[in-house]
Amino acid sequence: MPDNIKLGVAKLKILPTPDKLDCSLCQGDICLITDDGSMLTVNLANSLIKQGWQVVIVSFPESIIEEKLPLPKEVERVILSDLTEEHLKQQLNNIINSYGLIGAFIHLNPLTVKATAAKTILQHVFLVAKHLKNSLNKTAKKQRSWFVTVTHLDGKLGLGEDSHIEPIIGGLFGLTKTLNLEWQKVFCRAIDLNPNLDIQTAVEAIVAEIFDPNLLVTEVGYTSNKRITIESASNLNA
Predict the structure, then answer these.
(1) How far is Cα 105 from Cα 126, in angstroms, rounded to an integer?
(2) What is the pLDDT of residues 190-199, one digit of tens each?
(3) pTM over 0.90, yes/no
(4) E-strand spans in 46-178?
(5) For the domain bounded by 9-231, which CATH number is listed?
(6) Could you give the CA distance from residue 167 to residue 117 in angstroms, rounded to a whole number?
């Protein structure tokens, strides 16, 4: 390995509570949220509605996520009948034509999911990113737009000691970091919540991250009492 390449050791860094940026969706734009089948979807939608946002929920087929809880009356739900890219593209276009340009996308990964379903969901989020590129970047020219992923590994971005973590879910971190580099005007953030957090605390954490003015952080984890990110602890010459 060349002498000028250095290796970093990843470690967790505690972050302060984020400030709140005074921003919102552009008039007529919507926030698209994937349904994780839990009250997190419902409560997050309610919280964003109180911020004046228009919210649309997209639900996976029952073969992936069976539960579909009742939504607030102000929220529309779109159900994917299959997981082909053609169908997804069609539904996203229908959403834009029916409700408005998608200015924010929030993927809520289910708390528990089998490995095969986790892979399918991850692949579909990659496809969503592909087909929302134009919408999110167009919105970002006027005001902040969002691409946010929410997981429930350990609240430590997979660096904790939980041996039951499904590693493929970590692919959402990689996707979000990549988009953050490629979509420089879109606010991209990966949020990892400890599975033991109650719904209200989880919602408050997600909303806090959405309005965080700090653009230097891409990955954030929440334990029961800490907000953290990953940094390089030291550099070692190979």
Answers:
(1) 12
(2) 999 999 999 9
(3) yes
(4) 55-59, 76-79, 102-108, 145-151
(5) 3.40.50.720
(6) 13
